[in-house]
């Protein structure tokens, strides 16, 4: 999955321009209600401006409201391209309020934490509802393939592999449709446990 299908388009994004003053940037941030917005030069992404940085600059560093916004622009590398993988974006966004989506230096939009969460919620069936089984097993070569092979006859709506990198233990979360019968669930549990796995948790999530 690539970022291009997930980001908020630039037309819906509040920005500051790099010819603004610190005071003008503060006004944009205050009116928008956002703690951080992208800064652009024309259509090119140049970094982020944070409300907290504006206030620290004015009150702690004795900066002036008439100073250039360039004094407080940061995170110039806080961007991905439309073709960046979702996994890479997920790892990159952790320390940031959002990621700019940039192509040939031009700001196309932003990838927000809420968009990232929507993807994860979709995998877990939060929107449509689903039955989650958390299955534990030893982390050996081919274990995930062996597990999924046992489930190939069933309708599986989502799979998440947890504990990656551990040497002895791995959990896998599978999402079944809400319409899955108790008989089918019992069959699944029996089949995976026969293969040496163990179902350690079951949870039903209804439609949101």
From TrEMBL:
InterPro entries recorded: CBS_dom, CBS_dom_sf, Diverse_CBS-Domain, Lmo0553-like
SMART domains noted in UniProt: CBS
Identification of the protein by name: CBS domain-containing protein
Organism of derivation: Priestia iocasae
Domain of life (superkingdom): Bacteria
Alphabetized CDD domains for the sequence: CBS_pair_SF
The UniProt record lists the keyword Ribonucleoprotein: no
Pfam families according to UniProt: CBS
Keyword list, A-Z: CBS domain
Key word Oxidoreductase present: no
Residue ranges of every copy of the CBS domain listed in the record: 8-65
